[in-house]
Hints:
This protein has 22 helices and 17 strands. By secondary structure, the protein is of the alpha/beta class. It has 2 domains: 1-283 and 334-383 and 506-546, HUPs (Rossmann fold); 389-505, no CATH class. The strands form 5 sheets. Strands 8-3-2-14-15 form a 5-stranded parallel β-sheet. A 5-stranded antiparallel β-sheet has the order 12-11-10-9-13. The longest helix has 31 residues, at 454-484. It is globular and about 90 Å long. GO terms for molecular function: ligase activity. Belongs to the BshC family. InterPro entries: Bacillithiol_biosynth_BshC, CC_BshC, Rossmann-like_BshC.
Amino acid sequence: MKIDAVSYPGSNPITHDYLQPAHPIHxxxxxxPMNAESFVQRAKWVDGRKEQYSRARLVEVLRSYHQxxxxxxxxxxxxxxxxxxxxxxVIGGQQAGLLTGPLYTLYKxxxxxxxxxxxxxxxxxxxxxxxxxxxxxxxxxxxDHVWIQTSEGVPVKHRFSSGDEKKRPVSSLYIxxxxxxxxxxxxxxxxxxxxxxxxWAERLKKWTNEPVTWSRFFARVMHHLFxxxxxxxxxxxxxxxxxxxxxxxxxxxxxxxxxxxxxxETAEELKKLGYPVAVDLKKNQAHLFVxxxxxxxxxxxxxxxxxxxDGRESFSDDxxxxxxxxxxxxxxNNVITRPLMQEYLFPTLAFVGGPGEISYWALLxxxxxxxxxxxxxxxxxxxxTLIDRTAYKRMQEFGLTWSDLFTRFGEKKEEWLADRQPxxxxxxxxxxxxxxxxxxxxxxxxxxxxxGMDLYEMGQKNQQKILEQVDYFYNYTKRSIENKYxxxxxxxxxxxxxxxxxDKLQERVYNLVNYWNEYGLSWLSRLLETPLLTGxxxxxxxxxxx
Length: 546
């Protein structure tokens, strides 16, 4: 396995500027992620509120969550270390995507683990990696499928349908053994026959051999991948965790107006600087959800009441505070309040996020302060692309650099094809079209003036049909040239399907099973063993040749 570090800042404007050594966007954050002193200062701040963390209770909840099948000696060691009074955590999270969802979920876990290990050595104190599973999330369309490559290398979406269309949190959605077995068998038929097909199929079927919730299935896969590195996990909808969150839910209810005002003010500041706002903010938004009859409904503030957005439920302040006290498992957070809840629960050194998350965290500095906190170090997750030896060989044959691949792949392909044409088609066909128009327009005007205006419209339509025929001949000629280089163009497509499926970064599309089937899991183990946080990763994208 070879790893190339490529300079590629990406397309997210906030993240791009955030990773600059010095930029005004840093005023929206508390620490610079690439400054070693940031971690020292953050650790001191956490120490200053040491008594406010319920470490013993938190460890008790985490230990309970990992029982029985998510246990591991490395997990137990980190639980013991988390109970120490000077412990810190590096935390990040993700929705419970099917079979872990897109590859960036794995890269986020790798970043969390490596950052925790690096800072533990630097700070000489326990730093524990934690993965927060958004089991409260109800947007099934984002997590109910995987993208893989067929035997022909073509991207295809394989969706698992539960048949339940309610807005139920995925932590309460059970997977039926028979349905999952059938879905996995279909997945196996789509993927090419390789050495590791039996391995992943047997393991995944084993983990759903009895009724299991969607988010617990996700946790089992993640546990298999990262347990030996001591990655702790927690489902945000875990009832024991919800009970621990009850006091802070009450606090969020009391300061809700202030939180919302600070976020809206920050959004306006970002707009003035020309940045897009990453969250769809509404005037009366409460940034909390309530569960009603198995459905998760967002709350809004309306005439002194808290109402579900669909109008089915309403609460006074006292009623919602009582709900938070007595049934906290019915409440949950959105993207604005979830980071605050994490800060309440965990002695957080750093949060690991992707480009989208960094964009919405830019809204939260004042919200953290309003809640009595300070935003932790916000660290960008590693960005990677996996490429097989064949596709890499194709790149070399075409003289493509990594920069070409990520920034102008389509342009390079067109240049390559144009170089193989005996003449430039546009130079041949454009003058013909101009001559037709130059000859036809005077004819149309003359006939319409001398004979009748109805000939003007007919003449324009006739000219358009002639031009369309010229375009048809142009496209036919272009296809004929492409057919001559069909094999080479298929090689271009192989590169695209491998590295830029659907014209997106690979990490945002393909699922782990695509590579488990082909290579097993040793590549992921080697990735974990390779120090990737070198301090120079501001704009680096790792290209991994398998």
